[in-house]
Amino acid sequence: MFTKKEPDSKKPEAQQKNNQKYSKAQFAESRQLSRIEKDILAAVLLEQKTYTLQEAQEHIQQFMNGEAQ
């Protein structure tokens, strides 16, 4: 009768969310980041550049590991 539809593992909405870029000011206003994470990003991100959430997390990790410039 009916066939079961396979779930699509790569939804465009999820990909778009992962690729969305934010400014330094937007990270400062984020409710998803702790105060310490916001402070780190304020110190290491450039004002005129935009970053994905994953890139921002990488900057935080580098800073915490002492690898930030």
Q: Which terms summarize this structure?
A:
69 residues, mainly alpha, two-stranded antiparallel sheet, 4 helices, globular, YqzN/YkzM domain-containing protein, YqzN_YkzM
Describe this structure in words.
This protein is mainly alpha-helical. It starts with 11 loop residues before the first helix and ends in a 5-residue tail after the last helix. Helix 3 crosses helix 4. It has a two-stranded antiparallel sheet with strand order 1-2. The mean pLDDT is 83.
Condensed summary:
The protein is mostly helical.
* Broad shape: globular
Taken in chain order, the helices and strands follow as HEHHEH
Number of helices: 4
Strand order of the largest sheet: 1-2
- Mind telling me the C-alpha Rg? 17 Å
Q: What order do the helices and strands come in, and which of them pair?
A:
Layout: H1 12-19, E1 21-22, H2 24-29, H3 35-44, E2 51-52, H4 53-64
Antiparallel strand pairs: 1-2
Helix pairs in contact: 3-4
